[in-house]
Predict the structure of Diguanylate cyclase/phosphodiesterase.
Amino acid sequence: MEQNSTNMIERYLDDKTIQLESKKYRKLKIFISIILFLTFSFLQRKVNGVPTISGIFAQLQVLVSIYLAIKASKASYITAVLLNLFGISQVMIAIFLLGNVSAVTGVIVYSFNIISITIIWALSNRNVKQFKRVLDQREDIIALYEELSASEEELRDQNRQLMDYNEKLVKQEEELTFLAHYDTLSGLPNRKMIKDTLEKIRKNALENESSFAVVLIDLDDFKKINDTMGHHIGDTLLQAVAERLIPFVKEEDILGRMGGDEFALVIQSQYKEDIFQYLEQLRNNLNQDFNIDGNRVRTCASFGVALFPQDSTDDDELMKYADTAMYKVKATGKNNICFFKKEMNDEVLERTEFEKRLLTAMEEDELFLVFQPQYRLDPLELRGFEVLVRWKSPDMGMVSPMKFIPLAEEMGLIVKMGEWILRTACKKFKALKDKYSLDSMISVNISAVQIQDEFFVDIVKSALEESGLEGKYLELEITESVLIESIDKVIGVFEELKKLGVHIALDDFGTGYSSLSYLQRLPIDTLKIDKSFLNHQNTSDENKDIIGGIIFLMHRMGIYVIMEGVEEEFQLNYLKHRQCDCIQGFLLGKPLDEPTVEELLKK
């Protein structure tokens, strides 16, 4: 389009140039004009007696004069003036020689013609000069037009860019609005939107004197899934949980993700019984296994409920009370629904204080180790010790491991605590071994979270090097629960540990998930049968057969067998009869502190 416009201007200017520069026909045109003028003048005199025809010839002379003036050349203008002067001379002859006084009007007409053509010529000459200047500037005009055309295209480009930028701004504004109000992982309303919506619902409930419930839903043992199976599996599980809950949430209610593994649900219902049935349906759906990237993941959730206006009319308090009720479920077995009660506040404060004390327990050297002896049965002799951790609080006294170990796992302290136990056990046992020339082992419990830690093998290697203890004298005990996680990764860790000479023991066998197929794959050295098989040994022939069968199979697989929880003499005799390799229990030795262990070794 720009090129066509430029060509059009060039053609127009070229045409005008040709018109101005072709002078060869000018003289001919002037000559013809003179002949015409003189002819019309002669004819006018001939018909002077007929005014109408005489006037026509006079007008034709005027037209010829104007034509010559319009040509805008000096020669044509002078010619036109001379012709009109000639006309005046003819009129003057008629007046003075012929005595025709009426011809005086001709003088006026010719004089007027001279004035008119002078004005026309002056204007036309000025226009021609201006156009010549334009012609002289033709390159500049074309360049200017091209520049203007380019500027127009640039403006179009800038306009398009502005439109694109505006679209991006609108899109970014929509994205920012989404990010401000929705959780990017699950697509659910986020904490801010939940709180904003809760405030609106509360105000509406106050005006209408209605009620509603605030529910906090926290996945049980999610941290363990994250630590053992990886954050990718954890994130995908959160998405799957949201997808499973959404179809069962009523249209008038709002489900959102508060962060981590915690979800919130605001239920606009009047009756406590309806709320319970509603949540029970959600809980049952979450209890079904999830298939995450080919892994079967089992989870459940704890539900805490606070009611408006029964429990509070304040948004923050309702959230706090729902959180309190949810932690009550956590403390009493998980996977349940609990409605807030006022007395729960004291329990929450107690748990919070307990957590604070556990955090400082390691720093203040309140944790210590005890050693429970293990004895071979044929002959009866010391095999080694299992290391157990104890906590003596200056305020609470002796705290049960059953209370603080699970809490340490929940708080994420178990890896740090486990490393301290391992390093301390290796140092102390190395000192006892050197002092008493022991040919025995030390067994240390390892959690599933520690096994999944990428630096675990390095930590074990460092503990052995730091203490000077050979790997063959260290036995690491893992529970069956580790087998539900990534079995291939666990096997890889075990093989690395075996390269250090470390023994691997499967603890609490019979309480969980292991099978013969797992045992055949795992590079374990020792299997510890859970004490639950001995609880009814004196009355149950079935348990006798199970213990005997396990011992027989393990021996066929080349695995050493330890029976835990031996407390009675008849149990010892039965295990000897079944050719059990080793026992551990109160019958032959309770967990001992370090001075008592030294007394035992002296004997």
Notes: The chain has three domains: 2-136, 191-342, 370-602. Residues 370-602 form a domain with the TIM Barrel fold (CATH 3.20.20.450).
